Amino acid sequence: xxxxxxxxxxxxxxxxxxxxxxxxxxxxxxxxxxxxxxxxxxxxxxxxxxxxxxxxxxxxxxxxxxxxxxxxxxxxxxxxxxxxxxxxxxxxxxxxxxxxxxxxxxxxxxxxxxxxxxxxxxxxxxxxxxxxxxxxxxxxxxxxxxxxxxxxxxxxxxxxxxxxxxxxxxxxxxxxxxxxxxxxxxxxxxxxxxxxxxxxxxxxxxxxxxxxxxxxxxxxxxxxxxxxxxxxxxxxxxxxxxxxxxxxxxxxxxxxxxxxxxxxxxxxxxxxxxxxxxxxxxxxxxxxxxx
Length: 291
What we know:
Strand content: under 5%
Oligomer: single chain
Order of helices and strands: HHHHHHHHHHHH
């Protein structure tokens, strides 16, 4: 503390020494003893010291006032800096909490989206997939096309029996909904008519996956799912300059397969995404895949 006010203490010390020197020097001419000095001598002495010490005491007073002001100013600056630092920390904490809240909401919604498709295809979708396949497949081609993945139909002559066998096979077929969506999008998605899909892929068992994916994305719940996924993409792109975007994409790829996400973006690119959005997501996903 003394080092902090070294200059001021030196000034005050010098003034004290000057005053002491004056008293010592004056003692040569003045005895300072009441019984040896007349009243007139005391008056003259008092006047002398008043004239000599007034400027010195005034200087000391000014110095002390300055020291008080400087101390108060320094404490005020320190307090100001402390409050500024606390305010910055508070803003950082608020921003961090806002980020956490927004990311938690996004994370919960993404998990909800993933939970709707990371499940086995239900019987209703399978039934519609069967109807879609039968509708777009000529009954006289049942054996020649379906027989490659259901050999048993080669031994059946009745068209009705073959249709029932195909239905049973599809209803017993185990596949998760996400894989079906991916299979459907991979072969063209909405850009191709379902009849084209059937004619092209009917000789392979994957036609079941394609039909199930087609039925889901064209159902009411599937359309809502796709629109919700699109809104999340738009939200991530709008915040791409912040770390929210990077964490959000990581969360998206954690809950959904990166290949599926890529195919969904390609599908949405046909009508709903801009070129900048497409490039941003495909490049980011590709980069994270390399890592």
